[in-house]
Write a structure and sequence with these properties.
2 domains, eight-stranded mixed β-sheet, 406 residues, FAD/NAD(P)-binding domain, alpha/beta, D-Amino Acid Oxidase, Chain A, domain 2, globular
């Protein structure tokens, strides 16, 4: 398929049924994680009497608003394991789903600008190697060879002192990923129900038995939450709390340009990351806005600082025209790691807290979450990411790898 061609209109890729009276599993949230979970429930576990409920349109939340970076070079063993599983699934996803998602393994550079950056980055590279993750430390000259348009001069605020490099990392077309999962899940018998907001839950003692929605009550043998930043709201409706805070996260794109940026560049120190999409627009992001909120917009000063950093690193961008900006809602835990597992409510499960790394985890998180739902027990990949770790103190502190939007 030519990269400028559009796929078949998504309305024709899956059925849009009326909700049934009850399902074996009801998944709340039809973003990447919810759709992937439904697909793997059907494919891996034979559970097809599944409904995925979405209050708006399918994949219209963070799945439509992220910057599509995919990588697995996280510091701690637990994080590296689940993100590496996701990356391995990404590598075969087009063939498995039978749909073009434009997964491009163009590599990701994480820049270091200070001596402490260098120490932390080298430490992460060595940890990655111990976990079988492809990672290497490269000097400024090698950075320039991989990304010729980057400024490695010593006359900028934060000169480039080197970078970590993961060659297998890259990007994909986010909408097409969602459509691919939705199409295959629908073919396997999953009901995808849009414009159906969950307003409450029904219980029999400590066990959840269904959901109250704007389209009526729906019975459920099991309920799985996959609503990103709004998971805390749903959890409170169910009578428990999750330790997440929701923040706006902004991104922006430029007008179309010829392809000049061959890889993905991230800089935690100056809070900017840049890639170039398949059609030619520059896709950029920064850190989260500091305040809590559910607004899909952000502060202008974040954009201004982001642009200043981008133009310093990439002088060629100085005359590019900004086309549009937007915001999403990220759910951040205390240790910058997700929560995937059981909840205090019997037969209710939670998948949230991915912060700025939700898109890259879609296949791996959906795969492990489906196992958890089907067996009422976590998979070894997501067992460390339980709610109990906030009581036991077994935190997975990934702030060093995930403190900036990426």
């Amino acid at each position: 398929m030519n990269q400028r061609e559009l796929p078949e209109h998504p309305d024709f890729l899956w059925a849009n049924p009326e909700p049934k009276a009850s399902y074996d599993v009801v998944i709340v949230g039809a973003g990447g994680h919810g759709l992937a979970t439904a697909y793997y429930l059907a494919k891996n576990h034979g559970i097809t009497n599944v409904a995925v409920l979405e209050r708006g349109w399918l994949a219209g939340g963070n799945m439509a608003r992220n910057t599509t970076i995919i990588r697995s070079n996280y510091l701690w063993d637990e994080s590296a394991a689940i993100y590496e599983q996701a990356l391995k699934l990404w590598e075969g996803l087009e063939d498995e789903l039978g749909y073009d998602i434009f997964f491009s393994q163009r590599g990701v550079l994480n820049l270091a600008h200070t001596l402490q950056d260098v120490r932390d980055s080298v430490r992460r590279v060595e940890a990655n190697r111990l976990n079988g993750v492809d990672a290497e430390w490269i000097d400024p000259k090698q950075v320039k060879e991989i990304c010729p348009i980057i400024n490695i001069g010593d006359d900028i605020r934060y000169p480039v002192m080197g970078a970590t490099y993961q060659p297998r990392a890259g990007i994909a077309k986010h909408d097409w990923v969602a459509w691919a999962y939705a199409r295959r899940a629908s073919e396997l018998g999953v009901d995808l129900i849009q414009n159906c907001e969950v307003t409450g839950f029904t219980f029999d003692g400590d066990r959840v038995t269904g959901v109250e929605t704007t389209r009526g009550r729906i019975g459920a043998g099991k309920v799985a939450l996959a609503a990103a930043g709004h998971t805390s709201v749903l959890a409170e409706l169910a009578g428990f709390r999750v330790p997440i805070q929701s923040h706006p996260l902004q991104a922006l794109v430029s007008e179309l340009h010829e392809i000049i940026h061959p890889t993905v560049v991230m800089s935690n120190h100056v809070h900017v990351y840049v890639s170039q999409a398949h059609k030619g627009e520059l896709v950029m992001g920064a850190g989260i806005d500091s305040y809590n909120g559910y607004g899909q917009r952000g502060s202008f000063h974040v954009i201004e600082e982001q642009m200043a950093a981008a133009v310093e690193l990439f002088p060629a961008f100085s005359r590019a025209h900004l086309l549009r900006t937007w915001g999403g809602i990220v759910d951040v835990t205390l240790d910058a790691s997700p929560v995937v597992g059981l909840t205090p409510v019997d037969q209710m499960y939670v998948n949230c807290g991915w912060g700025t790394g939700g898109f890259k985890a879609v296949p791996g998180a959906g795969w492990a979450y489906a196992h958890t739902i089907a067996n009422d027990e976590p998979h070894e990949l997501n067992r460390p990411f339980s709610l109990e770790r906030f009581v036991s103190g077994a935190l997975i502190d990934e702030h060093g790898a995930a403190a900036v939007a990426h």
